[in-house]
């Protein structure tokens, strides 16, 4: 479920894809219809995917996609069932194809469908403050509270017993039961995804959602970007302190605690029972194992195995950090 809110304008023939990318592809089998673009992990037959880094070599070997946008140096890592589409810049090409399938996901303008909650069916079922707006395709469960000047824009589902603070903006998000989102948060806007192309920045469509599982708390002033190709997920019973940034496609496991001013870059995976100290930075496309502790102010630039304590920049095992900083 990577695109629950955006209309798919496909399918497209493989020949259409080749025209979009200005390349030649093999039609010896059949000029098949491609019905969606997915990541390597979730792709199925009649999907197109992409493979741009050796970090994803194992996923590439097991992909079920029919076609894959990739490079000359990586194409031989794909299974024989997946036809490579060799391009110079994989991510720019993926942006073009995603924009064709999901043109509505490129821009992120304000939701002009939003109305005052007083004029909706929720006026009698939700406890709310002043100047609260609700957009289309919004579901709100029982026993929920929404603070002053908050906007729940289109494409949001909020479970039971949830509390949404004041001056908060939520869109393109699925929020489970017993979740607290405090004041001044922004949840579900598109992430920082663009590529320089011919002296112009090319915006990458973000077709995923934000999923916040049950019993979570999101601190004041935090921002959680929706996924680009997959979803951004906050696991159940995870607590975020104030002023935290979670970038697109990040997955955070259950029962984790993250202190203030932490930033987690895109497509990183954080395990369960993880503790991250204040002002730590996590680089993109890495994996943090279960039961990991990361000291405040640390800079994590590579993956960390389960049951490890690290600190410093670059982050290293706590014993090594203490030895090197006597």
Short description:
The chain has about 325 residues and is mostly beta strands. Helix content is about 10%, strand content about 30%. The strands form six sheets. An eleven-stranded mixed β-sheet has the order 8-11-14-17-22-25-28-31-34-36-37. It has a ten-stranded mixed β-sheet with strand order 7-9-12-15-18-23-26-29-32-35, with no helix packed on it.
List keywords for this structure.
globular; mainly beta; Udp-n-acetylmuramoylalanyl-d-glutamate--2,6- Diaminopimelate Ligase, Chain: A, domain 1; UDP N-Acetylglucosamine Acyltransferase, domain 1; eleven-stranded mixed β-sheet; 326 residues; 28% strand; ten-stranded mixed β-sheet
The share of residues in extended strands comes to 25-35%
Widest sheet: strand order?
8-11-14-17-22-25-28-31-34-36-37
How widely separated are the two ends?
Answer: 50 Å
What is the number of E strands? 37
Overall shape: it is globular
CATH-level-4 superfamily name of the largest domain: Hexapeptide repeat proteins
Task: Give the structural class.
Answer: mainly beta
Average pLDDT, all residues: 93
How many separate domains? Answer: 2
Low-pLDDT sequence parts: none
Helix content estimate: under 10%
**Main beta-sheet strand count, sense and barrel state:** 11 strands, mixed
CATH architecture of the largest domain: 3 Solenoid
What is the number of helices? 4
* Structural Rg: 21 Å
CATH level 3 topology of the largest domain: UDP N-Acetylglucosamine Acyltransferase, domain 1
CATH level 1 name of the largest domain = Mainly Beta
């Amino acid at each position: 479920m990577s695109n629950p809110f955006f209309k798919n304008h496909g399918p497209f023939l493989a020949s259409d894809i080749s025209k979009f990318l200005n390349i030649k592809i093999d039609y010896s089998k059949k000029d098949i219809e491609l019905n969606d673009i997915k990541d390597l992990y979730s792709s199925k037959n009649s999907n197109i995917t992409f493979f741009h880094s050796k970090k994803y070599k194992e996923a590439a070997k097991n992909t079920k996609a029919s076609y894959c946008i990739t490079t000359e140096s990586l194409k031989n890592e794909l299974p024989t069932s997946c036809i490579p589409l060799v391009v110079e810049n994989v991510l720019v090409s993926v942006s073009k194809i995603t924009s064709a399938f999901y043109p509505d996901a490129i821009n992120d303008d304000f939701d002009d469908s939003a109305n005052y909650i007083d004029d909706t069916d929720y006026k009698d079922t939700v406890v709310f403050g002043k100047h609260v707006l609700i957009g289309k395709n919004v579901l709100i469960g029982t026993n929920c509270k929404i603070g002053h000047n908050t906007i729940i824009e289109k494409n949001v589902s909020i479970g039971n017993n949830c509390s949404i603070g004041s001056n908060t903006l939520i869109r393109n998000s699925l929020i489970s039961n017993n979740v607290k989102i405090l004041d001044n948060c922004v949840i579900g806007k598109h992430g920082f995804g663009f590529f320089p192309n011919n002296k112009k920045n090319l915006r990458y469509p973000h077709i995923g959602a934000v999923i916040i599982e049950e019993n979570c708390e999101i601190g004041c002033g935090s921002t959680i970007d929706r996924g680009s190709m997959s979803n951004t997920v906050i696991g159940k019973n995870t607590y975020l302190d104030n002023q935290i940034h979670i970038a697109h496609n990040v997955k955070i496991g259950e029962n984790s605690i993250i202190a203030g001013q932490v930033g987690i870059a895109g497509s990183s995976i954080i395990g369960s029972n993880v503790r991250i100290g204040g002002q730590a930075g996590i680089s993109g496309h890495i994996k943090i194992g279960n039961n990991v502790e990361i000291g405040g102010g640390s800079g994590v630039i590579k993956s960390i195995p389960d049951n490890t304590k690290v600190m410093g920049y670059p982050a290293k095992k706590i014993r090594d950090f203490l030895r090197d900083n006597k």
